[in-house]
Structure formats: C-alpha cells, structure tokens
C-alpha cells in the first residue's frame, strides 16, 4: 500500500505524542520511518525529534548523527534547532571546539529566534579561549538583537571584561544598552544585576578621574583640589576591594607638607569630639584611630577596644554587684567601682554593654532571671 503525502506529518505527530508519554523506543521507530521516506518536508522535523529521543535515552552518538541530518536539510526552523541541540551535547561533554562549530551553524541559519543564545555562547567560548576581541564582537551582536533574555546577559559579560581592562566608560554604554531591553517588572533580578554593574562602572570611572587629578602635580598641590581628590579617591578605592591602594593615597597626602593639614582634616571629618579647639595630641588614642582610618583597619581596632572594655567592665561589675559588704573597704571601694561602671552609660553602645554583663552574671549564677535591679547600673 502506497504512502500518502500526509503520512510523514502524521507519523511525526504520533512519534511526538509517544515521546511525551515516555515511549521513547516506539517514538524513535516512527521518526526513523519518516527519515526512510527520503527527502520529505518532514525530514528535518523527524531528524530533530529522533535526536532528542536518543539523547534522552543516553545514545549521544546517535543523537548527534540525527542532529546533523536535520542541519543538512537547511530547514529554516528545524535546522537551527538541531544545531542548537548539537551544540548543547558538545558543551555537556566539554568539547568546546565542536560546540563552537555547532553554535556557528545556528548563527549561519540566521533565524532570529535562535541567534541570541548562539551569539552569547560563542562570546563565552571565545572569552574562555582568551580571545577578547572575538568575544566582544559576539557579545555586541547578542546585545544588538534586543533579546530581553540573552541581551542583558551578554551586556553583563562584556561589561565585566571591559571593567577588568580599565574601560569603565565603554562598560557604561554597554550596560545602558542592556538595561534598555529589560522589562524591569518581569525580570527584576536581571535588571538589578545590570544596575549594580552600572554603578560599579561609575565607581571605576570616578576612581580614574580622581587618580588623574592627583596625577597632575599642580592639581595635587592645590590646597582645595588636592585634599578633596585625595579623600574621594581614598574613600572610593575600598569599595572596589582596593584597600592597599587607598592606604597609599592617604599616606601620600599626609606626607605632602603643602596639603597635609587639609588632608588630615578630611581624614578626621567623622571623628567625634565636643571641643573643636581641643588638641588631638592630648588624647593618646587619636593617632591610633587616625592610622586605623587611613589603613582601613578601624573595624579590627574597634573590635579589640570593645573586647578589652567588655572584659574589664565584667571584672569591675561583678565586684560591684556583690554589694558593699564584699569589699575590704566597703564605702570607698564600692563608690569607686560604681563610678567606674557608670562611665559608658551615656554612650550609644552603653546599654549593650550592660546587657552583656547581665547575661554573663545570669549564666555564672545559674539563675533563670537576671539578678540585677532595673536600670542597672545607674538606678
């Protein structure tokens, strides 16, 4: 009995239904029947269907052969889809050269539905191979497609490389183009990712501008420009993980007799103090704090100071909590200890220190409630 012209289409549809129902072997037989019919309009579709079924069954070699049959038909829809599938099988196996050839085949078909992921993949393969210029070309083409899914990813990849190469202005243009194709409501994560990268590129551009200002001897020696550029550069560099460079910027500014005073004033702009006329040299810890700010070690210094204070406070407070009868010289010693432990009460962190001691005392005495009066230690 002869086959009718509609038979290949019906066979493909039946094979698809079988594959979706988990009957892979029967589906593969039907797809092969279509291929055996020769050059029919359904040949590419059947070849791709067979490739997917075989790949799912673990027959990667057979799947690739079927993909190549579909690609060879030059079908504008199933050809690029088969090349796409072929590329994925090579990527899974770590076969980058073969994957690149398959992705290029996708691009050569020119089907706009499959161009963006193929261009993105080619860009990453070139980047992994160390060929930045080729990668840049593929990424730029992916962005130019305006695809809302793959365009922003390509923009992010390209911008990262441009930032690493010291080209923040170009990175900004790329990221701005990427942001234009994103629907913020439907893809908030992708939008936020590019927005953060754009902010980083602005930081890098600012770092370059501040550094350029300090690179000019006249500008660096200017009592207004030099100290300002020093502070801005030194405070921005750590945001990009460049703390060592920031320390060197402060050091250079503080060692320049012409601007050292203004630089020191900017370094100390956040320091506390009620008396503006007080001499910092009168406070032994001021040089320590100043040095910690300039070299980025302030958190470590603060941790050491609070740790020491917590330890000493606990020692004093335990004695005081014992009451006057616990001291050899009750009145004098008890009053002295009381004044000592009240010192931090006016600071913002004072209540936290009191809470810390109360918990220590509770654990030490084994009592379920804190054995301290309300308002300790001031009440």
UniProtKB/TrEMBL annotation:
InterPro entries: TPR-4, TPR-like_helical_dom_sf. SUPFAM superfamilies: TPR-like. Gene3D superfamilies: Tetratricopeptide repeat domain. This is Tetratricopeptide repeat protein. The lineage of its organism: Bacteria, Bacillati, Actinomycetota, Actinomycetes, Streptosporangiales.
């Amino acid at each position: 009995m002869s086959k009718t012209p509609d038979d290949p289409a019906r066979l493909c549809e039946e094979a698809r239904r079988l594959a979706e129902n988990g009957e892979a072997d029967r589906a593969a037989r039907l797809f092969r029947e279509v291929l055996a019919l020769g050059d029919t309009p359904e040949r590419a579709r059947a070849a791709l269907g067979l490739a997917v079924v075989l790949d799912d069954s673990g027959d990667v070699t057979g799947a690739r052969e079927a993909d190549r049959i579909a690609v060879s038909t030059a079908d504008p829809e199933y050809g690029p889809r088969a090349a796409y599938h072929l590329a994925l099988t090579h990527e899974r196996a770590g076969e980058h050269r073969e994957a690149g050839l398959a992705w290029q085949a996708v691009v050569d078909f020119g089907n706009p539905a499959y161009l963006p992921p193929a261009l993105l993949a080619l860009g990453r393969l070139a980047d992994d191979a160390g060929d930045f210029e080729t990668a840049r070309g593929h990424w730029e083409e992916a962005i130019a497609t305006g695809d809302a899914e793959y365009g922003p990813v390509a923009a992010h990849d390209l911008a990262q490389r441009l930032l690493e190469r010291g080209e923040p202005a170009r990175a900004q243009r790329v990221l701005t183009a990427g942001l234009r194709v994103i629907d913020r409501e439907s893809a908030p994560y992708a939008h936020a990712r590019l927005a953060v990268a754009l902010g980083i590129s602005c930081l890098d551009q600012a770092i370059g501008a501040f550094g350029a200002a300090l690179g000019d001897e006249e500008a660096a020696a200017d009592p207004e420009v030099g100290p300002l550029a020093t502070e801005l550069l030194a405070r921005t560099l750590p945001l990009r993980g460049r703390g060592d460079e920031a320390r060197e910027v402060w050091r250079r500014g503080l060692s320049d007799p012409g601007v050292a005073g203004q630089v020191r004033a900017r370094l100390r702009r956040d320091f506390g103090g009620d008396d503006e006329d007080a001499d910092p040299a009168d406070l032994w810890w001021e040089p320590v704090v100043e040095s910690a700010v300039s070299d980025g070690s302030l958190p470590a210094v603060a941790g050491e100071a609070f740790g020491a204070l917590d330890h000493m406070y606990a020692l004093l407070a335990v004695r005081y909590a014992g009451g006057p009868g616990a001291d050899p010289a009750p009145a004098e010693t008890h009053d002295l200890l009381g004044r000592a432990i009240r010192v931090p009460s006016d600071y913002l962190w004072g209540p936290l220190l009191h809470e810390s001691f109360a918990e220590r005392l509770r654990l030490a005495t084994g009592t379920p409630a804190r054995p301290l009066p309300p308002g300790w230690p001031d009440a």
